[in-house]
Structures are given as structure tokens and as C-alpha cells.
Amino acid sequence: MSEWLVLTLAMAAACGVVLTITVLRQRRVGEDDDPTETPDVIEYMTMMVGVVYAIVLGLAIAGVWEARTAAQDGVRAEAQALHEVSERVQAYAPTARDETRADVHAYVRHVVRVEWPRMLDTGQLTDRGTELLDKVREDVTAYVPRDDHENQSYQPLLDQVGAADDARGERAHNAGDTMPGVVWFGLIVGALVAVGLIFTLQIRRSGRELLLAGLYSALIAFLLFLIWDFDSPFGHAVGDATGPFTVLFAV
């Protein structure tokens, strides 16, 4: 099921529930009911709850967006570092150069084809990926430069391997969901309270009031969906964040 379909169903469901409750509730209201009799304190409480919940939603969206941006920056750094290793090793002897490039490509293929799906499912990296990156490091560190030109390329290659290792560590740290379960509990309960309080304002069955009630509930559903979508720093599918690898390498 695509994310757009899930979003559409969630917004339609939230809007439908609110409108259905509003219409059914209005049918049970007597003719002597006066909507102007809503106490001022209820209006004040509804406004305050809406403001506080909007602030919480804004902080949650900012948090998951920042986490996703940092995670994807780390992916780009890892892919770029490995690309630099593959290019700068051109200065080495043909045998060492080809072996290092083959090991770099083997690591990238494993990351995209094997490690990434597991990372999305379990939030953990694979031991095989660590072994393949260690093999790349071994290729670079074990080589003995033959002249000044190769010696000048040696340290930058080590630095790029270290940068790739650091980026991999950051990827492992960011592999899990950003939002804790207790925060999700607060967001969902807050949404129910915020939507539930609009019924205390004695909404009538006029088209304008029903439209506003439906749009309000649909907006909250959209914002919660947005947080859920950004809650996975690397997306929900392999192709969501592996672009830096597939652009720089033929996987």
C-alpha cells in the first residue's frame, strides 16, 4: 500500500468520524438547545489545548525532520568517502588498485542489497558489512607506497576510509525510529483530546461548521502521518535514501 493511499485513507477516516459524530449528536439535540450558551471557560480551554498541542506537533515534526536530515547527510558522507577511496587508489599499483576497488564495490553492493533492507526491518546493521569495510581498510593500510607520489596518496586514502567508517557508525546509531513510544502515546492522546474538545462547542449542522470540523480533524491526521513518515530517518523503502550509493556506484 503506497504512502499516499495511507495518508488519504487516514485523513478521510478522521474527517468521516468527526462529521458522523457531529451529525448524530445534532440529531439528539432538542429544539430548545442554544449554542450561544457554551461557557466561556470551555472556549478558553479548547483554545489553550489547541495551542499547546500545535506546539507539541511542531516540536515533533522539527525533531524527526532534523533526525532524517542528519541521517541522510551521513549516507551521503559514507558514499562520497567510499567513492574517493575508489578514485584516489588510482595512484596505487594495478593489482592493489583493482583489489581495493573490487572490495569497495562489494561493500556497496552488500549495503544496498542486503544490509539496507535489514536495517529498515530491525534497525541493525550486518556483521558482513563490517567485515567488508574492514577488508577495504586492510587493503589501504597494508599497501606499502613505492614512491613519493603513492606516499602522498596514502594518508588521504586512510582519512577517507576513516570517514566512511565514522559515517557507517552514525548510520547504525540512526537506524532506529526517532520518536519514543511514550511520545507517540502523548501525540495520539493529544489528538483525541484536541478533536474531542470541538464537540463541547456545540457545533451545528451548517455546511460551514461541518467543513471546519472536517478540515480540523483531517489536518491533525495529516500532521500525525507526517511525523510517522519522517520517524524513519532512512525512509520506509530501500530506494528512499540509497541514492548517494546508487549514483556514485553501479550496484
Rg estimate, integer Å: 27 Å
Proportion of residues in β-strands: under 5%
Distance linking N and C termini: 26 Å
The counted number of beta strands is 0
Individual helix count: 8
- The quaternary state of the protein chains shown equals single chain
Q: What general outline do the C-alpha atoms trace?
A: elongated
The main pleated sheet reads as:
none
The structure class reads: mainly alpha
- Estimate percent helicity: over 70%
Low-confidence stretches: none
How confident overall, as mean pLDDT?
Answer: 85
Query: What is the string of helix and strand elements?
Result: HHHHHHHH
Transmembrane segments: 6-24, 44-65, 182-203, 210-228
Pfam families: Bestrophin-like
Organism: Streptomyces varsoviensis
Protein name: Membrane protein
Q: Overview of this structure, please?
A:
This protein is an all-alpha fold and 251 residues long. 76% of the residues lie in helices and 0% in strands. Helix 2 (40-88) runs antiparallel to helix 3 (94-122), helix 4 packs antiparallel against helix 5 and helix 6 packs antiparallel against helix 7 (207-230). The chain is elongated, with a radius of gyration of 27 Å.
Keywords:
single chain; 251 residues; mainly alpha; 8 helices; 0% strand; elongated; Membrane protein; transmembrane helix
Give a quick rundown of the structure.
The chain is mainly α and 251 residues long.
